[in-house]
Specification:
α2 crosses α3, α6 packs antiparallel against α7 and α8 crosses α10. The protein is built from ten helices and seven strands. A seven-stranded mixed beta sheet has the order 2-1-4-5-6-3-7. The protein is of the alpha/beta class and about 300 residues long. α4 links the parallel β4 and β5. The longest helix has 17 residues.
Length: about 300
Amino acid sequence: MAKAKSKTKSKSPAKPAKSKLPPADAAVLGRIAAALERLAPPPSVQPDFTTADAFVWHPEGRLIPVPQVNRVEMSLLKGIDRVRDQLVENTERFAKGLPANNALLWGARGMGKSSLTKASHAAVNLMLAKKAGSLPLKLVEIHREDIETLPDLMSLIRPSPYRFIVFCDDLSFDTEDTTYKSLKAVLEGGIEGRPSNVIFYATSNRRHLMARDMMENERATAINPGETVEEKVSLSDRFGLWLGFHRCSQDEYLAMVEGYVAHYGIPSLDEETRRAALEWATTRGARSGRVAWQFIQDLAGRLGVPLKD
């Protein structure tokens, strides 16, 4: 007898159940989904580093190009020859792919710490421009209040073929501020470490980036005061290069004024103008490059001389 063939019925795929939400509820859920989309951080987009040599970091994940950097000519920075040479040499080594240190420029206000950083970047790029096939060095400024987003910035620029100076001006920390721990981990200590194409330059009026009375308070109130203070001082230890800026002498101050006079073509500095420059510094209670520049702006304005490079 022939065996009866078994017939199997093919099952059709199950159809998804239709939503039984009322239209009003579906509209509410749609608005919630849209609100969550707006709250979510935007996807990081690799910036076009060919548009500029300097950028400003914004914490939402954007690098804004700076077409014209506000900088001072290297030749106008007087009285800081030793630290100038050290920083330029360190920057040159880094640009060539050689080992270099993070740098902390600390000391008296108005003595050219941030100006030297920007001038060093320009000087090294001028040197690189003379070598065929060399990529320009990029300068990225991060604001003090955005330090906790530094790991995001590092992740963004790590895969780039360019080399970067990440620069923070006037870096310091207050008593309740713990964002310094993010900086410590990025500079040294994290499992990723600092990217090989990044170096960190910072300026500060404080050698250890924290006020002395803040450290004294830690020492007085902590159970293990030595350990607490050591943890905070260890931040500055992450900078292999410490460059100190000190108040300038009267001769150095006048040399700064004379340098600006020659650079901008202001009528020659006579004895009366020198006395006016010294009086200007006396009324401000300090002699510095910033005070010299402020005097030059006043002098040029009175003489009707435009300050154009």
